[in-house]
Write a structure and sequence with these properties.
By secondary structure, the protein is an alpha/beta fold. 31% of the residues lie in helices and 18% in strands.
């Protein structure tokens, strides 16, 4: 899509996902004089309650996505588990921010960690794990304690299993649903700091 321009009052932001973050985003947009249109496959989406327009459809429904794109000015998403294919489909019709390639990177913990490491940013030691048998070998490299996490669809502590001395590897593997995973070493830290930054398309960061 062409370069985006600043949104005018009354413009419509399309939001993929109807959870609490989508709800908060829609409310924040309203305070700026912007409208929001929520797209979600979940009929119980709490974001539906605070917008005038919403689309209840699966992320793979291209007809619904196409109609959604025609009714909004710009598109974003509320969380990283929105299928990247849906965002890419929409990007051919409306600006999607952040770029769908960013979404695809953040959906997989191994790809995300490799990307961060490639930037020269330190991370906890990590290795991919594809089976319970492989977990035993990887633990010997990473050490204990460590955390076994699903590569995809984990959030708020879900899809995680702590590996300690005496942990049964088969039980740990079953505990995350036997899905492709990443094992991360514990980090001895004093405090946790969250930093939120926004970058304009021109490069300015706030």
């Amino acid at each position: 899509m062409s370069e985006t321009r600043p949104l005018s009052p009354g413009a419509v932001i399309g939001i993929l996902g109807g959870g609490q973050l989508g709800r908060m985003l829609a409310l924040a947009a309203a305070r700026l004089g912007l409208k929001a249109h929520i797209y979600s496959p979940d009929p119980q989406s709490c974001a539906f309650d605070v917008v005038r327009r919403f689309t209840l459809a699966e992320y793979g429904d291209e007809a619904a996505l196409d109609e959604f794109a025609r009714e909004v000015d710009i598109i974003t998403y509320e969380f990283e588990n929105v299928p990247a294919d849906a965002a890419m489909f929409l990007a051919s019709r409306r600006p999607v921010i952040p770029d769908p390639s960013v979404l695809a990177t953040t959906q997989d913990r191994v790809i995300e960690k490799d990307f961060i490491a490639g930037l020269g940013i330190a991370t906890a030691p990590f290795l991919r794990v594809d089976s319970a048998a492989e977990l035993s070998r990887v633990v010997e490299t990473i050490g204990r304690p460590a955390v076994l996490k699903t590569r995809r669809f984990g959030y708020d502590g879900k899809g995680q299993f702590t590996i300690r001395d005496g942990t049964d590897f088969e039980a740990a593997w079953r505990g995350i649903g036997g899905r492709p995973a990443i094992l991360e070493s514990f980090v001895d830290f004093e405090r946790e700091i969250s930093v939120v930054a926004a970058r304009e398309r021109g490069g300015r960061v706030e």
